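Input set for joint prediction.
Command: fold jointly, output tokens.
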Amino acid sequence: MNRLMTWRAPLLSLIILLTVVGVWHALTLPKTAAQTVDSEYAALVGAAAATGQKSTFPTPADFGKKIWQHLNEPFYDRGPNDKGIGIQLGYSIGRVLVGYLLAALVAVPLGFLIGMSPTVYRALDPFIQVLKPISPLAWMPLALFTLKDSAVSAIFVIFICSVWPMLINTAFGVASVRREWLNVARTLEVGSMRTAFRVILPAAAPTIMTGMRISISIAWLVIVAAEMLVGGTGIGYFVWNEWNNLSITNILTAILAIGLVGMLLDLMMAKLTKLVTFPE
Amino acid sequence: MSEPLIRIEGISKKFTGRDGTATTVFEDLYFSIEPGEFVCLIGHSGCGKTTILNVLSGLDQTSSGYVFVAGREVSGPSLDRAVIFQSHALMPWLTVMGNIAFAVKSRWPEWGGEKIRAHCQQYIDLVSLTGSEKKRPAELSGGMKQRVGIARALSIQPKMLLMDEPFSALDALTRGVLQEEVLRICAETRQTVFMITHDVDEAILLADKIVLMTNGPHAKIAEIVVNSMPRSRTRHDLHKHPHYYRIRNHLIDFLVDRSKAFASDSPDYDPRHPPLVTPGLDRADVIAEAPKSLSAGKPLVAVVK
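tokens >
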């Protein structure tokens, strides 16, 4: 009974997947029929066009073949507009990580300060509230103008979108450390630096990590759009390039890859969050 | 008379509400604690018991009055006064050993790892937690957590132990066991203790003196009850001692009636010297005594008027 229960959900997932692929397959079946047009026109355009044609949207089989092809050769490089999907994902992940780590370097210490001091919190709050809802892409022209480099600008956009969740969560986590833990530190005459690192940091770590998990998801969302704008390399550029090539199969492959990488990044952060979270 | 370990002189605490009205929680409190004494504070909720404890620990300030520890005024928290918190306040990311080592390292920063570990182990053994050193608080029962809290407080070898209703969150069985442990530990270490409690039996079992507070606001010390029972008491034979019910009835009487109706303006009440009473020696409830000649098996004729 129990084993059946554990298998139920994966089984249902498989059924859903097969149904979606089935419907997709049915909708993209080639529409071959008897000759539908005038025979003179048929002679002019050729037999294929005259008897209906293969769907323009790729079939599941095309998609599978494409994925197989990419999996066999993920890292090829045949000039600026023809690189393997692995290389392109690598560029994107690299940009996300650089921008994200820079944001963490700024946001965690700054959030710590904000959380420790109610005055600083109130002073910076209006700025944070105004800057937080700005779409990171709105910064792009300003970044391109001031930084004068598209690669750096993309990293800046990742930085600016990752910084807010981390900043806010760190400040919140630090500000809401349980008073009794601070009281323990006070009655033990623990210095402020030791209190910060040995009490406040571990106590706020789960909240900080939640902020970092939100940030990495947002950064991965934003990088695709940013790379469509700056161009050159990356999975976002790959999608845009394949749109120009009208290769829907490649676009679909890229979409799947984006989803899988996003899921992996999130899983990694969830694992890290678990490492620093201790139930009471 | 030598200087008491703790001397409290005329402390009061006022809170200002949101609408600007000031409430005086307690005022004009005077009492002292001698070294090696176990003092319990009993009073209803809202009389500022926890505030008094926080003032003693240095975590909170009074609105007026002074607190002296060994003749010196309290200016803030100190390692001399260890606090056992009601909610144990263990850090969930540290193991049992880690939680105690954090305190030991704060007390003696110059100690090496091995020395700290040996010292911690000594106190883990003292509270009978041997074998649970590597467990985190989440893996411990409520009683075990509070044992760690006690070990952490004792490990810094404070002059004074402050306990804020340490057993109130525990079930009755665990509470009884822990009370006996505290009794044993205090007998072994001659630790000076100030403890807040709701539990009359707990106070009679543990305390040498029981400070009774009237209801807040404007709470005062009504009297200080001296526990006249011998110190070698245990939970099992406590109720067999003739003083027990006298003290207990006196305390319950106070909590039920007199804590509300206490008149501090009566002419013989002096807040500087709250009356020291010994209900255990009070024999008002004994009307007649059996004659010396009476023994088992002899007939007795009683005349009831």
